[in-house]
Write a structure and sequence with these properties.
This protein is an alpha+beta fold and 155 residues long. Helix content is 19%, strand content 35%. It has a single domain, classed as SoxY domain (Immunoglobulin-like, Sandwich), CATH 2.60.40.2470. The chain has helices at 10-21, 25-42, and strands at residues 47-49, 54-56, 59-62, 66-70, 81-87, 95-100, 109-113, 119-127, 132-143.
Length: 155
């Protein structure tokens, strides 16, 4: 027998409680979580804003399946991607996915992620040259993909 869960998950409740206790509310909490995640991925290395091949649609109908791809670009000769981490700062869980590439991998990837609402998808890449690159793409979402609706925009 399959039991279906209705209502908020424990993770969502804990994330909401933590966000409510941070001065500035949920937006400040999300920014703090993102910065902590970036610092953990960078492991002391400087993070540089530079395009490295992130592709995501500017507008999607549903946040349940948002296609994301990376085709390495803008890297120095002989430099390759070693790891990529995707973030959705306004999702209940900020870190969306992590990918590791071996020495013979091309560093290309294609996946689908969920977005709770319209937001910037943030990607970090660690390269074989010891650089950490950051790239962002704004995505407008019509229907949220994390169990609740996108706020209506005043028009």
């Amino acid at each position: 027998m399959v039991a279906y869960r209705h209502g908020p998950t424990r993770r969502l409740v804990v994330a909401g409680l933590l966000a409510a206790t941070v001065p500035g509310g949920p937006a400040a909490a999300a920014a703090g979580r993102l910065e902590a995640e970036i610092a953990a991925f960078a492991a002391g290395l400087a993070v540089t804003s530079a395009p490295f091949g992130l592709t995501v649609d500017a507008a999607v109908e549903s946040g349940y399946t948002v296609p994301v791809s990376i085709v390495p670009a803008g890297l120095a000769a002989g430099e390759r991607l070693e790891a990529v981490r995707l973030f959705a700062p306004e999702n209940p869980l900020v870190r969306v996915a992590t990918f590791h590439f071996g020495p013979s991998a091309t560093g290309r990837l294609s996946t689908r992620i969920r977005l709770a609402r319209s937001q910037a998808v943030v990607a970090l890449a660690r390269t074989s040259a010891g650089r950490v690159l950051r790239q962002e793409r704004r995505v407008e979402v019509l229907v949220g993909g994390c169990g609740f609706d996108v706020e209506e925009k005043a028009g």
